[in-house]
Fold these 4 entries.
Entry 1:
Amino acid sequence: MSLLELIKTTALAAFQASNPVNIVLGKVIEAKPLKIEIHSKLILSDEFLLVAEHLTRHERIASIQFEYPKSYTKGQIGDEGKQTSSKRQNQGESTAVPYEEYEMKYLKLVLEDGLKEGDKVIMHRVQGGQKYFVSDRYKEGDSVWHYQQKQ
């Protein structure tokens, strides 16, 4: 073995021994306490998980600017064009009237869509393998534009 090959082999072995970050797919099997299954023999409990904030219940400050009528094209929204709509009805009024323009500054939004049973997640195994960072949910390619219907 040449000196160059020996250096390459040693460097590769050192890299593999350092246990770099790996991307892992999992499925939430329990939301509270959080448990994620990587495969049938490896289920991670919340003590081994670091979860990105957007996958938890959290607050944001936002502003709303609404204009009616307004259309959004497929290129602006993604899967199909959309038309804005609104309804307001004060107590005692018999019919709803659309807002034509509406603006609210600095409202507090509480985003409640945390991880739930059945969610498919992308995780990164942190160096050393003891912790996993849950970075996002994912969907299979054939269900990218599928939205839950109103119940």
Note: The chain is about 15% helix and 40% strand.
Entry 2:
Amino acid sequence: MKIGLVFGTFAPMHLGHMDVINIAKKEMDKVIVICCGHEGDRGYPLFPLEKRYELAAKEFADDEKVFVTMLPDTDPEIKKHWDQQQIWNYWVDRMLLHLFQKELILARDELCFYTSEGDYTELLENTPQHIRVHRCQRVRPVSGTQIRGDLENSLELMVPAFREYVREHR
């Protein structure tokens, strides 16, 4: 099976993320959306990791092609000891183990990371797992940082489940 992997903190999930997910959906049999993060990351306090996972799962609840999972960063302190490539090698190993344990992927599956970030593309291409990487051009170049900086005026840039949550919690 051809499986697309789309990861992020999704704090919040926005239309730019949907551009990447939709490209993966067109090219792959299945897409796995991986919500990542840790306590105190850029999603806090409004978007704790568990809430991001819950909202992403709600967003794709009726989409038979998209599966959502959560992968907490277990050791944010690792950044003090390893270079960027070592961190990404470790993270990809953890992510693959997580996906195997959740039975979301099998050894024979063809995997491809989907991202719109140039830095991520290079780091992923250099991991020893040799997973294909598709660097996508987003139709809507929006960022979570931009949205978090002006939540009030950025609601329409978020996907519906996140938009609804923000409206309820402002």
Note: The two ends are 42 Å apart (CA to CA).
Entry 3:
Amino acid sequence: MNENKTEYEVINLGFEYPGMTGGVKWAVVTALDQATLMEKYGKELSKYAPFVLMTMEQGEAFHEYDRNEKKHDMRSIRHHDLFGYEEGLTEYFHSVFSNDEPEDAVIARAEREKMREGLDKLPPVQRRRCILYFYHGLDEKEIAKAEGVTQQMVSKSLDQAMKNLKEILRL
């Protein structure tokens, strides 16, 4: 792809802005002026034509916006039930993983211990993914990237883990 990362970066605007209309689908972020850029990398960049030229400052603003959007998405994901509502199980997981309403420290400790025992009975992959998802706050996409698998595989694994835990914990 881009072998000259220090000189320029290509951004797919169609990916960043789904539903975008217009003829320009690429942006090139560089500190070089257009003439120098085209002289040095014109052939390489021709496959992205037409493209918008962005300064490094504009590119950094673009990346900062992207980082903030991802943080917002993560917060949204963490505060919603990914697998929907399932009577008994949803309340149980919220009681175990929530710090918002510490009703009674003894009950909370017992619940966490029960959860640990349940997690220990899961297959290793499901156990690892549950720990990453619930305890470390990673989303499915981050887990998939770290493990080199698809997000769909992680989602199915977590869904099966919830079913297994429900059976193990007899909820």
Note: The mean pLDDT is 78.
Entry 4:
Amino acid sequence: MKINHLTSAEENLMRLLWKLGSFYLKDIMEQHPDPKPHQNTVSTYLKILVEKGYLSTEKEGRIFRYHTVVPFEEYRKFLLSELCDHFFNGSGKEILNFMIHENLVSAEDLKDFNIEITQIQKKEPDFKYANEILNPKKDKKKSKDKKKKKKKEKE
């Protein structure tokens, strides 16, 4: 089964649809959390999800009944494979190493899988790039001061 990428809006709607499994448009409108989108917007998304192969339709009189075609587990597996391939060189070991060092998985979590890690060095999050973006003036001023200092030292 070929799985296509979803936009974040499509993915958010699919989370609700996976819970429902089989449904009518009115079911979505009733179950959708506030603020509720317009019915035409939901209809458009349903049409797109049918085209992408995530949903199938069954005409019942004048209305359609929708069914999820791609199970949530398959979509999750697809996303994880994409993440692994694009950011971790296809290596599950790299993913696990990253998760451990970023404190996304603890040694206690790994014990559930009979994996013992005695030396996990807790790494404080490095927000170097975020700080450069959030505080650009301070960083520029520091680098200008350093350049001036170096210039004076050379003279």
Note: The CA atoms of residues 14 and 144 lie 50 Å apart.
